[in-house]
């Protein structure tokens, strides 16, 4: 029986060429698998047909947009996941979902190998391969671009020689990855750290510097999940899509940073994630209102570790699952409304209300109605500072 | 010999009245002590004279602006100190400096008591009293507003009755504290969490929504310290002041959040800190370029703990000093230039260059000149994912 | 209707006297509530009768030993809870359970106040009062020993004067608290840090220096819970009790340390906890075998925080509950056998076997059967060290 | 000019053979470099001569015992470094020192390559190669055992064929690494996790189960460094050596655990480290007496991270250096005497005294002399528990 390889298929030049190339080099049959995580572009049926025309024995296409929003973006929102306090894990979130479907296709179509088109200096190879190892440790992985130095030039030559149905003339100056949670842009002139991004780098967001009317939105959360915008019920996917449109129109969510890759190098990355940034901004402030202080403080450490793990390709690791349990427990009371102004590149919270609020007007107010018993403070302050005071007596040379 | 009390003196109604009141109630002589940390308002000489007219036996005034910038704002910048990831510790930074001078005045003028005008439900009482305990554990503390329920109404009556030289008619609807690092506003209609701040709340910043030309600035750092703006040398104080003006003119640095106070309640706080936010933004990105990954990751935990400690009044604690040693060591290589656009309420980094950069173009580039050895990746990825893979074999019920 | 007070009742002098005293001082009816957490001593019926003879209108007695073992000791075992890496939280675990029953009794008997006999410089007052606040924020708390300076001398005089059925002649030189998880001893000559404990300090453990035969035990765990000793099924309570006897007979579990109390002071504490220490030792090693590395590393931080929280009286806090979710998730695979030698004050693991083991002989062995692919190592090592190497190039002044 | 290779030389079979083999395979000249870190065995001169007889062009031998104790063991003691809370980093500490001398020899003798004899599945390859990369990023590394599958059988054949002056008949059933800080044993029947170690596994320690007289020792520390034993001044090396003898004679410091290796597998390790365990036990308790609570709590996190870094081969990393600064700051007041009983496999602290003690008898005592102001407690407890209480009001559905 002929061996089968499931190939992560995008419909583009590299992976279209890979179908035939893998078949030639390995003698295996290639099953192409394309996953829609909201990256836009061609419809799945077009992609499916192209895969077959390029020589795939099977072509699996999956609309996974809702699954991505619910199972991957929502946990990232609950965790306020911002790698290096900035980057909302756009590509890092989609990779485990894609891996899950690649493994599913391998099981369904009897494949023993999974192939991807990542290079050897990025994070995505790690996310693909560690993910496959964690879901299907028996499957082998093929990474032709990395392990056999497959280049764009060779791909073009191969496509032309074999008459593949691909337009090889289009070449972006950038390397781009996008999904409904955001868009990542790198390489090109951005590799010079002193160069600012130009407007043509962006696609999800408008120029924030252009004068326009502000947009105001009320996001309603239930247990950490956005369930309505301006009072109209939304799915997680709809919440992201609608805020991508509305926050994107105001230039919200552009990010430009030097980033620490797992493989040990620093790289320059530009992102745009209008919906993600708007949602995280709202979610953080609702947590400020509804989450108890000590829980909030420790959750920041959990958030950092969760984010590093996911960035580093360990979505399916035991630690990630245990951290999820913590985060789930923290979200029980994160319910309420956040009013936000989207304008000039900023998502600014202007109001919050919640039946689960821990803000107690009567304890907080300095006006009439104050019920805070100030006589408690003296004892608290004295014992709070006692360890420092005892140390001071020693360190100042007194008894 | 008559006992002496050093009073933290602002020149305003409450502390002016407190001079006479403390003298009457305790029979002690009052030494007024006013510290300029860049809060603006009246000059120190005017304040000094008023203190004496109100009955102080001595009036100590100190221009501590440079000391505050160098000894308190600079460590906060090195630590990227943002409480709850938002608030740059404006008041929390000035309190230990004021305590230091109060204690100094007590030693100089033979006082055995330090008095402050804080209420019993805020953080500042903790910062004052824990600070005094840590610098001078033998001194007693008097907090008449808290411990004797001193109110504004009583203060006005006392001032009028004794003909004190204070204008009692002015009453801000807000409670305000400000210094060169920023400005804090609370109470009034802001105590309703659904109310957005109005423009009259702000003083350090212009409305970011008004159309205006962007401002571009290059900040030069040496070992974590800003040493030049647009190539012109500045002291730390000048860096803050000039960026307060330039970033403030662009509406940068407005913050509005629900905050966890040390005394256990949540409060609504509005801040503006244009210079602080611009400097921290630049400093964080320069660290992204110059600080090694593992150090950067752990430093985020140190930053959170340092910030909580300082917010919680423990500036002079042994842990704070040990964390300072860590932060100092982390800043050795944080040198270089950050170019930033100030506009529309945002400080956006657009370029970075540094002789201490860890970004290596030849390792990062996907173009010609790439020296990254991709053959190393396969082994790395495999061993990186091995613990997850071994766990998966068990958890998936296979061997 | 007369107000009612639920009093935490031990049957001893102080709380027996408190029944009448509270009634006299407050005019309230006193409901005595005694909880058996395995402290030994008199039986519950004797204690119940004494409470009524001392004037209680109701006397509630509860055998909570199994509830304590399952709901309080077991989570502590799952967390390997050792405060300051030494003390297994003996008293800190029983307090929340007692609070729960006090609150239950208050609800059942219509009380509006809960009273306890703790002093003002220990941790237990915090655990009682914060616990009551978290379970029944409407209840008031009365702490006569602390707030009204109730002393032992006054208690003896009151007991003699009122003819209470208490033997006032017995006076331990130590202050002792004990339950099935362990025993805490303080004060007396132990307050001098240079004094070693004498044998009379101990009750749960024999002198480890005496020569005797070693005892070997196999503890079987399922999902973190001990379910059998030497193959015989046990409840959690039985596991603790049997190991208290067997490990105690070998002198295991004596602890002597200077401890940081929540109220800001250091105190000298001596503990003995033979069953707890034996179980934690076994549990830690089973985790070494069955828990993935990154999960194990982060769990140590969770363990520390959980332990501090419980020590600091925050058993019922939101953070504690969220940490429990993490710990629960971590225990899923902690199943298997640990063989341990109990001898000479030490519990030493000598064997482990588990169907959930992550130890893979074929990956670990240096002998025949080795399947570890050493060719993967070079790439791993190179990329693992790349950030340090890049930093070194900069820091050593080379390129 | 002929290329030169510096080889980490032990004097044993594998590295003796490697001298000739490397010369043959690469055409390079081999410089042998042997470092004495207290591993005992043959004297350095014998080793030096053997290296030359085996074909080395130069043989560098270094007595680095004091350097190892002062520069590597002492920081580990200050950090209470116990990997997985058990293993005192025996081998992990010596590797960076050896690397430093290898690099020094390479510079001195004009070598461009460093060679080591580690396998590809252990931690030491990482420590060597990452260390070389961090000290001399221009040097290449050769790992013949790993990269060319060099085996013991091939080594014996080569030695016999070339008449090398090595006794090839001796073969320990174990793989052993030892230095003055401890001794590590693995492989053999220990690879079965259910097997207990037998007495022949141990060399630094006597059987703790044998009856013998206890030994009592007083260790004096200054700023975290042991400076005297029983009042007699010692160097760090002497402190370790003398306690290795005295604690070893009592069976102190045997460890047996399943350990998480950096390369992703679990392995069974047996260690003995009598001096290290005795010193760490004493040091921890002196810290309990002299280090302020918050500093002690955060230091535990630093200790864990420091230990993981060093275990993972990152001794020369930027994070390690910054953590050292924190630890150094924490040790300033760690001065005083600890009295310890060494007996039956246990090092038990029985007394502590220190001029830098933070234990205040008058605050801690329950007897006469008590100066703790218990009236402060009520306010402290109430505000300490306020966040939990406010959350409880919400979570219990009340207001």
TrEMBL record, chains A, B, C, D:
GO terms for biological process: argininosuccinate metabolic process; L-arginine biosynthetic process; urea cycle. Its main location: cytoplasm. ATP binds at residues 8-16, 117. Pathway: Amino-acid biosynthesis; L-arginine biosynthesis; L-arginine from L-ornithine and carbamoyl phosphate: step 2/3. L-aspartate binds at residues 119, 123-124. The keyword Membrane does not apply. L-citrulline binds at residues 87, 123, 127, 175, 259, 271. It is an enzyme of class 6 (ligase). Pfam families: Arginosuc_syn_C, Arginosuc_synth. InterPro entries: Arginosuc_syn_C, Arginosuc_syn_N, Arginosuc_synth, Arginosuc_synth_CS, Arginosuc_synth_type_1_subfam, AS_cat/multimer_dom_body, Rossmann-like_a/b/a_fold. One of its GO terms (cellular component) is cytoplasm. Keywords: Amino-acid biosynthesis, Arginine biosynthesis, ATP-binding, Cytoplasm, Ligase, Nucleotide-binding. Residues 174-390 form the Arginosuccinate synthase C-terminal domain. GO terms for molecular function: argininosuccinate synthase activity; ATP binding. Signal peptide: none annotated. It comes from the Bacteria. Residues 4-165 form the Arginosuccinate synthase-like N-terminal domain. Its EC number is 6.3.4.5. Belongs to the argininosuccinate synthase family. Type 1 subfamily. NCBIfam families: argG, PRK00509.1. Homotetramer. This is Argininosuccinate synthase. The gene is argG.
């Amino acid at each position: 029986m002929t061996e089968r390889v499931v190939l992560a298929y995008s419909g583009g030049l590299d992976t279209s060429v890979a179908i035939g190339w893998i078949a030639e080099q390995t003698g295996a049959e290639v099953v192409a698998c394309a996953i829609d995580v909201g990256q836009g572009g061609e419809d799945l049926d077009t992609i499916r047909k192209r895969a077959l025309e390029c020589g795939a024995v099977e072509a699996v296409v999956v609309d996974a947009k809702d699954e991505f929003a619910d199972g991957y973006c929502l946990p990232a929102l609950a965790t306020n996941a911002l790698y290096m306090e900035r980057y909302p894990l756009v590509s890092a979130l989609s990779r485990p979902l894609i891996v899950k479907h690649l493994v599913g296709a391998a099981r369904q179509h009897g494949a023993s190998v999974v192939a991807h088109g990542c290079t050897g200096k990025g994070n995505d190879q790690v996310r693909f391969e560690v993910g496959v190892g964690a879901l299907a440790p028996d499957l082998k992985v093929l990474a032709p671009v990395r392990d056999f130095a497959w280049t764009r030039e060779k791909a073009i030559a191969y496509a032309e020689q074999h008459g593949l149905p691909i337009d090889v003339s289009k070449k972006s100056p950038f390397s781009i990855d996008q999904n409904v949670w955001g868009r990542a842009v790198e390489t090109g002139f951005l590799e010079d750290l002193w160069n600012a991004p130009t407007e043509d780098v962006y696609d999800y967001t408008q120029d924030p510097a252009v004068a326009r009317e502000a947009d105001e939105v009320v996001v309603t959360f239930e247990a950490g999940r956005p369930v309505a915008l301006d009072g109209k019920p939304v799915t997680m996917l709809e919440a992201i899509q609608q805020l991508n449109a509305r926050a994107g129109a105001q230039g919200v969510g552009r990010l430009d940073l030097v980033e620490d890759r797992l493989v040990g190098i620093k790289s320059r990355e530009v992102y745009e994630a209008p919906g993600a940034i708007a949602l995280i901004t709202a979610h953080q402030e609702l947590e400020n209102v509804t989450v108890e202080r000590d829980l909030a403080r420790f959750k920041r450490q959990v958030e950092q570790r969760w984010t590093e793990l996911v960035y580093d390709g360990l979505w399916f690791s035991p630690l990630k699952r245990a951290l999820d349990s913590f985060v789930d427990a923290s979200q029980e009371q994160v319910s309420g409304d956040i009013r936000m102004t989207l304008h000039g590149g900023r998502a600014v919270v202007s109001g919050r209300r919640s039946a689960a609020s821990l803000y107690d007007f009567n304890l907080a107010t300095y006006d009439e109605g104050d019920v805070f018993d100030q006589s408690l403070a003296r004892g608290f302050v004295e014992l709070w500072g006692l360890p420092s005071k005892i140390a001071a007596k020693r360190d100042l040379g007194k008894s």
